[in-house]
Amino acid sequence: MAAGVDSIKMEALSLSEGIREAPVCIIVLGMAGSGKTTFTRSLIQHAQEKFNPYVVNLDPACREVPYAAHVDIRDTVNYREVMKQYQLGPNGGIVTALNMFTTKMAQFAELVRRAGERGHKWCIIDTPGQIEVFTWSASGNIITEGLATMFPTIVVYVMDVVRSACPTTFMSNMLYACSILYKTRLPFLVALNKIDLKDCSYVQDWMTDFEVFQDALEQEQSFVSNLTRTMSLTLDTFYENLTTCGVSAKTGVGFAQLIKHILDCVVEYDKDYKPVYEKMRKERLAEQQAALCPKPPDNVEEAGVAVPLGLKLNDPPPNSGNSIFLMAPGLVPQSNEEEEVEDMEEDAKGSAEDQNFQSFVQSHLTAQQSKRDKLLQEQSQS
Ligand SMILES: Nc1nc2c(ncn2[C@@H]2O[C@H](COP(=O)(O)OP(=O)(O)OP(=O)(O)O)[C@@H](O)[C@H]2O)c(=O)[nH]1
């Protein structure tokens, strides 16, 4: 990362200023090998003049990137060292490296903010090859939400049209895209990449005409294709709200159109998503301020008398017969009113029976006694 990052004051990263106009953060996501890095390079070239992009590489495992990154995670975290030190495999290493980077999130956001002040209108963020590492990790979440609460943020999902030509692969890709869309809650653009190798019109046909996709599926007779058929019905609504654009990251075809779509997404962020993130920003701010507020005193002096302000529960003295328990629903034996009533009835019945028995014994004893008295009286008379 750029020199002097540690000198950035954390207080400078203020949530109180509201979501800024710039830079617009463009998070580039996509399956491994879909062409994210090549796409990022091409997007930088096409946007350079107008948007002067600030470029971030968040892939700690890549050997080299074909663009000049302003912020490169590899300068902050040594991925190989992380793997060695924590005895991790490649994916564990990437997750841990991202987690380590996230501890510098405040400084990172501050760098992005300053870049906006210096005239960078866009901030393009290239992400790790293993998409799930970013989309389903806590650090990926922190980075995405952190950026979206401070800057207009959109997601560009890069999809390889050559690999997606198989309907089931296409469907897996779409399910992934769908899950990311709902998880990030950000404007979402699908870049259909590698159109220099294969025309992407089939994707648009499959997305707009259910019958055409079913015909393509007919070719595949497997359990997966049956599952895909069912899934495709569900994804119809998702397709309706999805913007796609064919590009070739290699030749640069389609990027003029893609940039127009990105600008539409920014308008969409302002209109539909900004209020949601504004609310989230205010909540974060309130949390920050609550954490900074000094703890209220336990007592206030009122006319020389200390008035306790909170309920203070002290442990009861031992053997006092009075205990305080912290109870959780699962731990507390559930009291059942019906059972209690039944128990009371049983008790009442029991005591009535008891009484009956006692009076029976008593009357029996009395009868016995009177018999004995009568016998004794007869004996004495005779
Ligand atoms: N023909 C063609 N090849 C492409 C295009 N975009 C990317 N590639 C190639 O696809 C391969 C993968 O591209 P990358 O940019 O490394 O893809 P990535 O998604 O960043 O890869 P990981 O980060 O490793 O997951 C490379 O060989 C690229 O040259 C394209 O538009 N057309």
From TrEMBL:
The keyword Coiled coil applies. One of its GO terms (molecular function) is GTP binding. Its EC number is 3.6.5.-. Its main location: cytoplasm. It comes from the Eukaryota. Residues 333-356, 363-382 are annotated as: Disordered. Keywords: Coiled coil, Cytoplasm, GTP-binding, Hydrolase, Nucleotide-binding, Nucleus. Gene3D superfamilies: P-loop containing nucleotide triphosphate hydrolases. GO terms for cellular component: cytoplasm; nucleus. It is an enzyme of class 3 (hydrolase). It is found in: Cytoplasm; Nucleus. Residues 336-346 have a biased composition (Acidic residues). Pfam families: ATP_bind_1 (PF03029). The keyword Cytoplasm applies. Small GTPase required for proper nuclear import of RNA polymerase II (RNAPII). May act at an RNAP assembly step prior to nuclear import. Binds to RNA polymerase II. Belongs to the GPN-loop GTPase family. This is GPN-loop GTPase. It comes from Drosophila kikkawai.
